[in-house]
Structure formats: C-alpha cells, structure tokens
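WARN retry 2 of 3 for item q-0093 after timeout on previous attempt; input resubmitted unchanged.
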Amino acid sequence: MSIVRRCLLGLLVAAVAAPASAEQAEINVAQQFGVAFLPLMLMERDKLVEKHAKAEGLSEVKVGWIKVAGPSVMNDGVISGALQFISVGAPSLATLWDKTRDNVQIKGMSALTTYPLYLNVRNPSVKSIRDFSDKDKIAVPSVKISTQAIMLQMAAAKEYGEQNYAHFDPWTVTLSHPDALLALTNNTAGVDAHFATSPFHEQEMKIPGIRTLTTNYEILGGPATALVIATSTRYREANPKSYKAFFDALKEAIDTINKDKRAAAKIYLEQAKDTKNSVDEIYAMISAADYAYTLVPQKVGKTAEFMYKIGSIKTRPASWKDLFFPEVHNLPGD
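OK item q-0093 returned
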C-alpha cells in the first residue's frame, strides 16, 4: 500500500471514529437576584444540568453560575458567546431577537417565571403615576431596556399617548433590586420609588408609608411572563445535547418546585443566604395565585408588539413563537 493510500485510510478511520462535532464543555449561566430565579438555584444546587448532560451521553460538563444586576451585561455576554444561557425579561428577549437576526440569532428557550412587578413609592404626594415629576427617582434594573423600564413606557403611552411613551424615562435610575431596596428605605440620592420583584416588594411593604401604585399585570392586562431563558441559535445548533440537557434540567427544577413549594422556599433561603425572610414568607410569595414557575410564555407577544410600535425594535414578530425555539411552540403561550 502506498504512503498516500495509507494516509487516506488513516484519515478515513479517524473521521469515522471521531464525533461529528464536539460540544462545548463549559456552560455559563447568568441570573439576577430574587426568588424568581429559584429554578436556576435548584439546578445549581442539585447539579441538574450535569445530570441531564450525562443522560445525553456527554462527558463531564462544567456549569458556571453568574450573578448580575441587570440585563445589559447578560445581553452583551450571550451575543459574544461568553454566556450560553441568560435569564432576562420579555423586553430584553425582544431586543436581542431583533438585534441578532442576521448573526447569532438569539431566541427564548422557554419562560421561567410569571409574577407581578410592583411599582412602589414612598413620596406621599405621588398618589398615581401621573403625580411623578422631576423631583422623583424611580429605581429599575436597567434604564430604558429592563422589563420595568418598558412597563413604565407602556404606562406612559396609556396615560399620555403613544408618542409620549418616554415620559418617565428621565426619572429612572439603574439599581439592582437589593440596592434599590436600600435606597428606597433610606431615601438615598432621591430614590423614592422602586419597580420591585419579590421578595424585595414584600420587604418594602413592611416600611411605613410605602405603597404600590400599579403592577405590570395591570399595565399588560393580565398575568405576564417576567423572566425567560434565552440563548443563541448558533449555540443551540452547535450543542444540541447540551441545549436539551439544560432544557430538561429546567423542566425538572420547575416540576420539583411546584410539587413542594414549602421545601422550595427553604432551598431559596439557603441558596440566596436570605436572612430577612422566613420560610413562611417565601412560601406565601411563591404560592400566591398570581405567581407561577412555568415554561409557558405569557404576554411576551404583546410586549414585543408595543416595542415595535414605538421603534424599540425594527422587526415585527408575527407571533410570540417567532421569539422562541420550537420546544415550547406546543404550549398555550401568547
């Protein structure tokens, strides 16, 4: 056999023996703060992604869990490929979907949590959102792009007309929920309002004089997905087994929480190192009728439609399914 033929045979044998493509050995997941991220906390604690990766025949997979204050860092991370999965609000998903249609093509894997967002205020002069002025500062996770910021824009459009959707924007400031709680409590830097999530909302309600003006449910007209899990089409196509492992791990975590929410409340306190709330308080939050851990997207399409109307995104999705990968298309989303 000639040297050339032996080389060709060697290459053929190697090609048959080797996998068609090696999946990424490391998965980095970004999340924010609060009980809404409990499924991810459970996935981290019980190494559920690693468990399902093994079930898919993958070798050792390293999963990194990263805490961030708002969507800006996550958006940049998932576009660059530094992050594989991110947990963001519907507005961030719509923005990423629109922005990356010609490159990495980011979409939602599924919903994560459906729950109310509460616009809380301590200024006694502010009796409705119409009373906000340049004397007020409203804390949101990220100005202009976070779910809370978009909800304020939707509220402004209802109150003052669509062309005035940015009415409240000059009075918003970027703060993580823990920092916003402290700022509202201490009236730091003029912060007298906070568009809060649980458990920060419940802590704020214990402070005399603080009250809720409205919620995202009121603004959107019903229960709405607060958080989704998103990733890029590029990652999904290159890592189908890892993608499925993460999806299956998320589903298992949500099912586990929904089967025993009191046990889930204990897990949250342990994982979040939360010493301000009790098991009963967290259990009450996540057991409320308007709070749900679910894969089903709700009001995501309506949010994206509003963003298209005001020019925040350039492409109009035909339905909510355009924003999500096929694994959840059979669910009753909107």
